[in-house]
Design brief:
alpha+beta; 36% helix; globular
Length: 81
């Protein structure tokens, strides 16, 4: 279910699973050249200035089944489109 939720969220920003990359927060600085359009910080503090379209949320496991978390994430996505 969590993978399905992740895929659905990616679709809302016009991305597929094969276009997504999972990084731990400490690995973000290792990206020297990238074409990131969106970055989503789930379950950690957001780092500003990486890309224009930044999302921040609890972990996916906490979003799943929680309408308030889903709504907050959806509102962030809509505000950045």
């Amino acid at each position: 279910e969590t993978a399905s939720l992740f895929e659905n969220i990616l679709k809302t920003v016009n991305l597929s699973l094969d276009q997504a990359l999972h990084l731990a927060p400490h690995q973000l600085g290792q990206l020297t050249s990238h074409s990131l359009k969106w970055i989503w910080f789930a379950g950690c503090d957001a780092q500003q200035g990486v890309v224009d379209k930044t999302l921040q949320s609890p972990l996916l496991s906490e979003i799943e089944g929680n309408q308030a978390h889903k709504r907050a994430l959806w509102q962030q996505i809509q505000a950045q489109k």
